[in-house]
Amino acid sequence: MKNWAGNIAYRARRMEEPRSVAQVQELVRAATSIRALGSRHAFNDLADTTGILLSTAGLPRRIEIDQAASTVTVDGALRYGDLCGPLDAAGLALHNLASLPHISIAGACATATHGSGDRLGTLSTAVIRIDLVQADGELVSVERPPQSRGIDGFEGVVVALGALGVVTRLTLTVEPSYTMRQDVFDQLPIDAFIEHFDEIASAGDSVSFFTSWGDGAIDQVWVKRRARVESAGRQLDDLYGASLAPSPRHPIPGLSPAACTEQLGKTGPWQDRLPHFRMDHTPSSGAELQSEYFVGRPDAVPAFVALERLRDRVAPLVQVSEIRTVAADDLWLSPAYRRPSVTFHFTWKPDWPAVRELLPVIESALAPFQPRPHWAKLFTMPAEAVRAGYERLPAFVDLARRHDPDGKFANDYLKRMIFGTGRST
Fold first, then answer.
1. Whole-angstrom distance, CA of residue 211 vs CA of residue 267
2. Which of 10, 104, 309, 341 could be stapled to 294 by a disulfide with Cβ–Cβ 3.0 to 4.6 Å?
């Protein structure tokens, strides 16, 4: 079995798909090496194991909305696209969504997956409670302090890369439902991007810049605004030299926009505007590899300039790059930990030998800005350099060793990147 992109073949000796939490407990208790598998959107070996792969897809679906508490509780396999409709029908919404709704909530939160927005944190920041089956098979709950019980260190549990156990349930904060509009702008001059990045990134609740690293312009700027913003009378017809797109766009030049959420400024439900892609279509291009790096928000323009110098090497291999902003958070292994961030995402052509040769060049260009790679995407940074970017990593390692003393969740990836006990690849 392979991951979604087809670039990783799992090495597990068998796959299990339990139908109840009790069965999850039995499997974990008996295992010596086991990893949870979500929607398979990791592009590296994060979810891989030579032991047992445990899919949570067979667990009973759970969507429990608490209007009074402004929360929703979901099972460990539910995808965002399956939650949004029922949530909106109840008059509620999430604070943000990733570019595609096809990913599992538990997997996205475990890796600090994000959308865009100066004031919006990663998807993990919505979590206020997690239920998980830890190494001894016990089901424990951890809540944001002061309610925490069962496992201490809430800030270390949310973004845990599967190192602490199998997530069976999450509770997320929600807010009143809202409507949004989405406008796309073509050909933002590079000079305008450099001079006015802050103003453009704050032009909407969620703003994404797409570039194929050609000469002279950012290909597209996607601006997503809540209705309250447009009601204030601010109409965007021209964005620092970028013109309003007269027809729908796909982020990757030449692909049909049919897979994308509605544009052209038409107001609609939040869940039909925040993602770039529709749930009922193949997201992005399908045949691709992905990399992403977080740097500090103040370094957005210098980091872009450093990458722009590499455009002649990047352009032949990239399908598109996306630049987004993310608010800081307090989650130990979040790449946005205590650092408002800008992210540089690369959707590559499926040519791993060539991409692998280029990634160290990109990482060297970003090195002055202390980049933190997305945990579930492709990178070649030395493990010790990645670990150095997380001041609470020692506390996380202590947390993992206390709750998984025999390392049954510690696959090659975690040994290499987190515990520092595996060999580099």
1. 26
2. 341
Output the six-digit token pair for 267.
């107001």
Query: Which stretch of DSSP H or E encloses residue 243?
Result: strand 242-244
pLDDT mean over 54-79 = 94
- In this prediction, residues 168-190 reach a mean pLDDT of 96
- pTM score: 0.94
Q: Which two tokens stand for residue 198?
A: 């802050």
Largest CA distance in the chain: 62
Residue with tokens 């709950």: 141
Percent of the chain with pLDDT over 90: 84
pLDDT-based confidence at residue 183 (cuts at 50, 70, 90): very high
Dist. CA 7–CA 45, nearest whole Å = 10
Q: What is the pLDDT of residue 107?
A: 94
CB of 344 closer than 8 Å to CB of 307:
yes
Structure confidence at residue 285 as a pLDDT band (50, 70, 90): low
Q: Are 160 and 214 in contact (CB under 8 A)?
A: no
- H helix intervals, 246-404: 300-308, 311-314, 352-366, 383-388, 393-403
| Segments of 327-379 assigned E as strands | 341-348, 372-373
Decide: residue 412, CB within 10 A, 0-12 exposed, 13-18 middle, 19+ buried. middle
Tokens of 259: 């897979």
User: What distance in Å separates the CA atoms of residue 176 and residue 338, rounded to the nearest whole number?
Assistant: 27
Average pLDDT, the chain: 92
- DSSP codes of every residue in 173-239: E-EE--EEEEEEEEEEEHHHHHHHHHHHHTSSSEEEEEE---SSEEEEEEEEEEHHHHTTT---SEE
